[in-house]
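User: Can you recover a sequence for this backbone? Please restate the input before giving your answer.

Assistant: Of course. Working from this structure:
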């Protein structure tokens, strides 16, 4: 069984011992993956030579029968600091380790999590979020973190996996949706995947060993794919990934492919300018960037949405490069209406929430794609938490309201009639509804009348802008 069996047993323990105060946490345990927390703990226990106890504890939990009376029994785990440690005490320790180090953002964690921390920032040394008791009984904190991220071929992953680093650091490997840990102890590489079976026989091992880097990389790619981040966190001294600069210099264009951009903005956002600058030297660089922005990953996040979430400050640079692509203006406009988070948040919502100051930069591209104005209109009409895009625009970027209105009025012929009706009601566009051979007053400008000869009209009703955005 995968980590699911662990989470079910942990939730069952909480139900028996702390039911009232942990209802939300139990729901999360049963619905959310804990690969990050489990991988951090596994790598940490390996670093302090407590892996035998840790894996034995996970196996003990996975095989627990779910009955409260057995929680008082001795756990009898190898290398335990407390020979009288009970099964219940093992549950308490494992829960605290995993839940805290998972750095979850759910409300059920409010009492135990640090504010405004996310998994990609947890091991950065500047804030000292992470600490642990080292083999010398002293508190250890991260002093140096290095990370390489992107879409990599096998040979590039092999270059970035360094024995010395894997042996002496907390080494995690991430995709956009999963995390594993890797370490090295001569003569073997070790890999732990939280989805490996945990309900194995007592005395077994959960991780896998590999005698060659080639077989290790094959397993990594099998689990995570090729769009990954390799993260090293040192608790001892400054470190560097010796081959990383060479990889960026030679393969920056390819690193953006598939979900490469997604993992770059997620794990190493500060390196976006350098990577894009090198990638744009290739003729197809702008096209590749635009494709990456409009690609949906396994978590159903577009590259555009992920960029806004993790590093909105780099949006102007990204848009500058995207504008060089023939398809750039069109795809950026379309992305505004594309949704994530089970259809609740559009690109427009993300933009106005995380980077409203950059909305004019986006509108520069929107104006170059008049045939896609329908997508802008749909984004303005889309509701999120009882607030549609238009209301969100008025709240976050009111200075752009007239400009957006004018874009809509200039491109009415590109907007579907049903969408137009909704826009008139929602955004109060200054338009006149015209039927063949007749004319009507604008209900928002009752003293203004516009008449058009019937031979210039089509058979269907049309909407004509009156006065433009200045009359808005």
């Amino acid at each position: 069984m995968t980590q699911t069996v662990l989470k079910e047993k942990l939730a069952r323990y909480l139900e028996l011992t702390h039911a009232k105060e942990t209802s939300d946490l139990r729901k999360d345990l049963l619905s959310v993956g804990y690969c990050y927390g489990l991988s951090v703990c596994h790598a940490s226990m390996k670093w302090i030579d407590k892996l035998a106890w840790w894996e034995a504890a996970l196996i003990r939990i996975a095989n627990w029968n779910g009955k409260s009376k057995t929680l008082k029994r001795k756990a009898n785990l190898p290398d335990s600091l407390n020979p009288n440690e009970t099964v219940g005490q093992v549950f308490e320790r494992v829960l605290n380790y995993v839940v805290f180090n998972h750095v979850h953002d759910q409300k059920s964690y409010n009492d135990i999590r640090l504010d405004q921390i996310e998994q990609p920032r947890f091991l950065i040394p500047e804030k000292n979020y992470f600490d642990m008791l080292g083999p010398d009984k002293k508190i250890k904190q991260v002093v140096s973190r290095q990370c390489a991220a992107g879409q990599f071929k096998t040979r590039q992953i092999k270059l970035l996996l360094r024995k010395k680093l894997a042996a002496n650091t907390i080494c995690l490997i991430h995709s956009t949706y999963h995390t594993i840990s890797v370490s090295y102890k001569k003569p073997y590489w070790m890999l732990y995947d939280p989805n490996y079976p945990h309900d194995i026989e007592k005395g077994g091992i959960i991780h896998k060993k590999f005698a060659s880097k080639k077989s290790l990389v094959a397993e990594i790619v099998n689990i995570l794919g090729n769009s990954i981040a390799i993260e090293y966190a040192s608790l001892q001294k400054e470190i560097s990934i010796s081959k990383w600069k060479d990889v960026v210099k030679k393969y920056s264009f390819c690193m953006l492919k598939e979900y490469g951009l997604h993992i770059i903005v997620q794990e190493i956002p500060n390196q976006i300018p350098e990577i894009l600058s090198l990638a744009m030297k290739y003729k197809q660089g702008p096209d590749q960037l635009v494709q990456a922005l409009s690609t949906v990953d396994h978590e159903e996040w577009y590259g555009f949405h992920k960029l806004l979430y993790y590093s909105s400050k780099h949006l102007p640079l990204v848009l500058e490069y995207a504008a060089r692509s023939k398809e750039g203006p069109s795809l950026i406009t379309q992305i505004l209406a594309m949704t994530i988070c089970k259809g609740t948040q559009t690109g427009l919502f993300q933009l106005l929430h995380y980077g409203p100051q950059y909305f004019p930069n986006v509108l520069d591209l929107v104006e170059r794609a008049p045939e896609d104005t329908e997508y802008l209109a749909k984004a303005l009409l889309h509701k999120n938490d009882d607030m549609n895009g238009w209301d969100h625009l008025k709240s976050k970027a009111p200075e752009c309201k007239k400009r957006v209105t004018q874009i809509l009025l200039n491109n009415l012929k590109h907007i579907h009639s049903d969408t137009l009706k909704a826009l008139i009601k929602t955004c109060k566009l200054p338009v006149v509804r015209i039927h063949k051979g007749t004319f009507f007053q604008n209900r928002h400008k009752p003293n203004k009348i516009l008449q058009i000869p019937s031979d210039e009209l089509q058979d269907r009703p049309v909407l004509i802008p009156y006065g433009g955005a200045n009359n808005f």
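That completes the design. Residues 252-404 form one domain.
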